[in-house]
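Hi everyone, sorry if this is the wrong subforum. Our group has a chain we'd like a structural model of before ordering constructs, and none of us has done structure prediction before. Sequence below.
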Amino acid sequence: MKKAFKLFGTIALIAIIGFSMAACDLDLDDLNGVWQTSGGWRVTISGSTGIVNAFGSVGPLTQDAINKGYILIGSTDIRYITKTSDLTWSGQVKVVTYTNNPNVATGTDWINCTIVMSADRQTINVNYAVTAGAETQVFTRQ
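Answer:
Right subforum, don't worry. Here is the predicted structure as tokens:
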């Protein structure tokens, strides 16, 4: 009987530790999860990387890059994500390169970005600078 109580105590302790670790994984400050723009572009962030899940509706330049295979479902869209402060991260986002005609994609490149999460932790803004000026992609948690 004593061995049964010892075994039960050990199992209970392991369960408590396991549930505590799972609760840490659900930290509301965490970027991990599925994020989507209003146009349907969907990215799953896990650790320091964001992977494209869906394209949704896109502009002609991005559509040209998709048609040419520069951007694929399953490809990395955001990388090197590092927390810089509460609700703020830095990283790199993939952007489409193009010729003087903005509808002709020539490839992709990586540029630095800042990711800022809303206080309710349901929205992120991915901010980056491009030749034409500042860009922001707004994603909501799915």
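For your construct planning: The beta strands are 33-36, 42-46, 49-54, 76-85, 88-98, 105-117, 123-130, 133-141. Helices lie at 2-25, 60-67.
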